[in-house]
Write a structure and sequence with these properties.
Elements lengths: L1 H33 L4 H15 L4 E11 L6 E10 L3 H8 L4 E2 L5 H5 L4 E3 L20 E8 L5 E9 L7 H67 L4 H39 L8 H26 L8 H15 L3 E9 L5 H22 L3 E8 L3 E8 L6 H6 L7 H12 L3 E6 L5 E8 L1
Parallel strand pairs: 7-8
Antiparallel strand pairs: 1-2, 1-6, 2-3, 4-5, 5-6, 8-9, 9-11, 10-11
Helix pairs in contact: 1-2, 1-5, 2-5, 5-6, 6-7, 8-9, 9-11
């Protein structure tokens, strides 16, 4: 008697342990399903999970079969969605499976919503035999899959070559898995719907870019016609009036480009970034969005060049400002640093030697920024008054250690910094090197005129 009780207790503990492991397995499967949003891969994961929880040799998921002709013909076409445990020849068999006459044991699973267990299909009167190329199963388990709204999606057909392999517990596990699968499929459909919405938005964004590009071309044509008109006025105005009017008009056009066209291109870039952030990394839309971003950046650079050309028209053709702008433009095109030139004032043109020295200092400073500063923004400011020329190069990088700022002129390591200071002092000027209040480095050169 005692021995029987101990055996029953041991069997009960074993059953509880098995059920706990089954529940844990279902929980792991549910967690895995929540991370997959591609519908085809999700169906394959679910089918693999069905084979795993039932410890079966084969598992398949079929969509609701298509009935051909009238009910009397009794012919259906099965649509395989996923197959697990089968060989390549078995997969090929199901892929080319044509209309089937009669569905036998599958009738209750697909159309009556019942879960079916067949211990041995060869002994079942409704089974019509194994077709050539079919999986040679003996035990069979069929469980229907419905959405949360009750719509039938298909059914799991699970088989094993061993008779009497499946039990009512397997039915319970499969029905629990089906409930989890229905939620995962619903989520995947939501993601697919969102992806389609993003694709539509990207297409709309591309249309807007084309429209804005056409508008920019139209404005360029208007600017070209306006420039021609200015040339005609050239012969009708005095030299002073002509210079004054040209300067005012160029400033107006430059401001218009800055306030409207450049902002439009910037907004296009922001929208492209927003769309990229809301897409999966592997989305097919990432490449066209990157192209849109690059086109917006190219347009911004071209507008910036136009603004500079309009703003600096009164400066000498090959002077310091033109050389500095060329240097900054090369930096922008060859790196990810956003660089700009600010001409605060230009009263007189410095001597050639002063311009060359200031240009060399700026060149060395930008070289150091690119190599060491880890900066993303740099601003070069030039100011020329009646008695002095000032050059300031400021970035938002890591700056320099205090020890370097204090001792760079006394050691043999920082030759570039020493060279800049020496050139400025040879002209009787002052050279300062300090870290900015909000980070980065400030290089300042002041030369008397």
């Amino acid at each position: 008697m005692t021995h029987t009780i101990e055996e029953s207790r041991a069997q009960l503990i074993a059953n509880l342990q098995q059920q706990a492991e089954e529940l844990a397995q279902l929980n792991r499967i549910a967690i895995a399903l929540t991370s997959e949003f591609d519908l085809q891969r999700l169906l394959q994961m679910i089918t693999d999970a069905a084979r795993k929880v039932t410890a079966a040799q084969y598992a398949a998921f079929f969509l609701i079969p298509e009935v051909l002709g009238d009910a009397a013909s009794n012919k259906v076409v099965f649509n395989l969605a996923a197959l697990s445990g089968a060989t390549e020849s078995m997969v090929a068999h199901f892929r080319r499976l044509g209309p089937v006459e009669g569905i036998g044991v599958l009738q209750p699973v697909f159309w009556e919503g019942e879960s079916v267990i067949v211990d041995d299909v060869l002994q079942d009167s409704s089974y019509v035999g194994i077709p050539k190329g079919h999986i040679p199963v003996r035990s069979f388990l069929g469980v229907q899959l419905r959405t949360r709204e009750g719509m039938i999606l298909g059914a799991f057909l699970i088989g094993d070559t061993r008779p009497s392999h499946f039990s009512p517990r397997h039915v319970e596990l499969m029905e629990a898995l089906s409930a989890q699968a229905a939620v995962a499929i619903h989520n995947a459909q939501l993601v697919a719907r969102e992806r389609r919405a993003m694709e539509e938005y990207a297409a709309q964004l591309e249309v807007e870019v084309c429209e804005r590009t056409a508008e920019l071309e139209r404005r360029n044509q208007e600017l070209s016609r306006f420039a021609t008109h200015l040339q005609q006025l050239h012969h009708e105005l005095t030299e002073v009036q002509k210079r004054q009017m040209l300067n005012e008009e160029r400033s107006r056009i430059a401001q218009e480009l800055h306030d409207r066209v450049q902002q439009t291109l910037f907004t296009i870039g922001l929208k492209a970034d927003w769309a990229k952030e809301h897409l999966n990394p592997g989305s097919l839309l990432m490449h066209p969005l990157r192209s849109i971003k690059q086109l917006a950046a190219l347009g911004t650079a071209q507008v910036r060049d136009a603004i500079f050309a309009l703003s600096s028209a009164a400066l000498p053709e090959d002077g310091l400002v033109k050389m500095l702008y060329s240097l900054i433009r090369d930096l922008r095109e060859s790196s990810s640093i956003e660089a700009d030139l600010v001409v605060a004032e230009w009263v007189v043109t410095p001597a050639v030697g002063v311009e060359k020295t200031l240009f060399t200092v700026a060149q060395e400073a930008l070289y150091n920024i690119r190599r060491h500063a880890k900066a993303t923004i740099v601003i070069v400011t030039v100011q020329v008054t009646a008695d002095k020329a000032v050059l300031v190069v400021q970035d938002n990088g890591v700056g320099l250690p205090i020890q370097v700022l204090q001792n760079y002129y006394e050691n043999t390591v920082h030759l570039g910094l020493k060279g800049m200071r020496s050139r400025i002092e040879e002209l009787g000027g002052q050279f300062t090197l300090v870290n900015g209040e909000e980070g980065g480095l400030v290089v300042k050169a002041v030369v008397p005129l």
